[in-house]
Each structure stands twice: as structure tokens, then as C-alpha cells.
Specification:
Length: 298
């Protein structure tokens, strides 16, 4: 996508961005993590070193919460990546700063819960955080539509993952915390989904290409987490997030919400991409079925 087209598209949809920001402000009610964390359970890790016997939730639930937390820890990299691909003006800056501020307490709240409830090894958690932050997250986005298509899918995926992680804890405190975090992800998802919808109206061919790049190679930004593959398999088997959930709760709803199948006025190349997008769910479902067959028991 040439720089001129990139700038022109963003300038054209800027009034829509401003409207979406206003709608977000009106829709979202701020919440406070300190009102949800069980501070009364907190103990001194120096005089009472952590031991696995202290844990009160299942291993799969702990893995899910830690994986979600380490993904949230990468917030500075997400902010920087979005900033690099959007104009340096008041409208886009307002969103990125507000989004970052709202996302900021997710990791704070999750870490506070895990430490006060002693449902994680605190030293290992800090070692993993350092490893994740040292590696960083550096997406190779090439198309401005790819940026917003990815963030749309990622916000929707984290909404699903956070809610499911809270559910399998069987802990009312963790459930309410993850429910609040997932609520934020949903509000952010609605914003990004609206941005792509606006782009599709103004530049359908360019936008479909960005959507395809984002969705066909989609992976959560937590792949830099130590032991990510092992941990992701564990949460997949626990029903927190897996390929079938991605197919049912993320991929198919997005294609429907954006009306990808009905987009018209496309270049020949974009029409081919449209077909590939509509075939993508079948490819993901085939992978999901292979995964499930591999790990089927009894």
C-alpha cells in the first residue's frame, strides 16, 4: 500500500474514528481492580515462601491466567506498534492513549490476584515477565488495514480467552476480575471492528487485503512467552482457547460482521482474496479437527 494511499485512507475515516471514540467513552464504565482483588489473602513471600500446595485453583486455570497475564504485559509494545502505523494527530493519539490507559490495569489486576491468592510461583512469574518484555513484540504489519484487522481479531480473541479462563477457575473472585477485563476487551473490539467497517466502505480492495493478511496468519502476541507451545496446548485442551473456539467465536463472526462475502467493487486481485477469506474458516476447522483427533482420549 503506497504511503499516499495509506495517509489518504486514514484521513478520510478520521471523522469516523472520532465518532467511535465518543461512542466508546459513552458506552464504557470504568472499573477499579483494587475493588476485585482479595487483598485479605495476601501473605509475605519472604517469611512464607511459595509452595504449590498453596494454590486454590486448577493447574489448567493457573496456566490460563498466567498466559493471559504475560500477554497483557506486552502493552508497551502494542502501544508503540499502533503509534507507528497511525497519524501523529489528536484523534488517533487520543484513542491510542486512552486504549493504553484502560488496558493498563489488566496486567496489574491479574498479577495482584495471582500473588495475593498464591496461585502462581512468584519468582517464575517474574522471570517469565522479564523474558517476554526483553524479547518484545514486533509485528510486521504492511497495510494499515492489517493493523486494525489484527487488533480487532486480537481484542475479540482475548475477550473470549479471558472469560473462559475466569470460568474454569471455579473462583468467584477470579471470575469477576476476568469478567471485568473481558468487558474492556469487548469495548475495544467494537472500536476496532468499526474502524475496519469504515475502511471497507472507502477502500474495499485495500482493506480486504489487510484483513486477509491479519486473519490468515493470525496468532496471539504471546508466542514469545517461554513454554508458549506447551502452555497453549494445555489451555486449548481445557477449552479456554483453541482452534475450534477461534473458528466459532472469532473468525466466522468477523467475516459476518464485516460482510466480507458481499463486498463489491473489487479489483481482480481483491476478488481472489475475498474468495480466500471465505474459504479460511474451512481451513481452520480442518486444523481444529486434526488437533482434537491427536489429543483425543479414551
Amino acid at each position: 500500500m503506497p504511503f499516499e494511499e495509506h495517509s489518504e485512507l486514514l484521513a478520510t475515516i478520521e471523522p469516523t474514528i472520532a465518532r467511535l471514540i465518543a461512542e466508546h467513552r459513552e458506552r464504557r464504565t470504568h472499573w477499579y481492580f483494587h475493588e476485585l482483588v482479595p487483598w485479605e489473602q495476601g501473605r509475605n513471600f519472604v517469611t512464607e515462601p511459595w509452595d504449590p500446595s498453596h494454590c486454590t485453583i486448577s493447574e489448567a486455570a493457573r496456566t490460563s491466567l498466567v498466559l493471559n497475564l504475560l500477554t497483557e504485559d506486552n502493552l508497551p509494545y502494542y502501544h508503540a506498534a499502533i503509534e507507528r502505523h497511525t497519524p501523529d494527530n489528536e484523534t488517533f493519539g487520543e484513542w491510542n492513549h486512552m486504549w493504553t490507559a484502560e488496558e493498563g490495569q489488566h496486567a496489574i489486576g491479574l498479577r495482584s490476584y495471582l500473588l495475593t491468592s498464591r496461585n502462581c510461583d512468584p519468582r517464575l512469574l517474574e522471570d517469565d515477565r522479564l523474558a517476554v518484555m526483553t524479547t518484545g513484540y514486533h509485528p510486521h504489519w504492511q497495510n494499515v488495514a492489517e493493523v486494525f484487522a489484527y487488533t480487532t481479531a486480537q481484542e475479540l480473541a482475548t475477550r473470549v480467552s479471558h472469560r473462559n479462563a475466569g470460568r474454569i477457575t471455579d473462583d468467584p473472585v477470579a471470575f469477576e476480575l476476568m469478567k471485568a477485563i473481558a468487558g474492556d476487551e469487548n469495548h475495544h473490539f467494537m472500536f476496532y471492528r468499526g474502524v475496519i467497517a469504515a475502511m471497507l466502505k472507502e477502500a474495499p480492495s485495500l482493506t480486504l487485503e489487510g484483513i486477509y493478511k491479519a486473519l490468515s496468519g493470525f496468532e496471539m502476541p504471546g508466542t514469545v512467552i517461554p513454554g508458549f507451545l506447551r502452555r497453549s496446548v494445555e489451555i486449548a485442551r481445557a477449552g479456554v482457547y483453541n482452534l475450534r473456539i477461534h473458528h466459532d467465536r472469532v473468525l466466522k463472526p468477523l467475516l459476518k460482521d464485516w460482510g466480507v462475502e458481499a463486498v463489491s467493487g473489487l479489483s481482480h486481485r481483491a476478488a481472489e482474496i475475498q474468495d480466500k477469506l471465505m474459504n479460511l474458516p474451512a481451513l481452520i476447522m480442518a486444523k481444529a479437527e486434526r488437533f482434537e483427533a491427536k489429543f483425543a482420549t479414551g
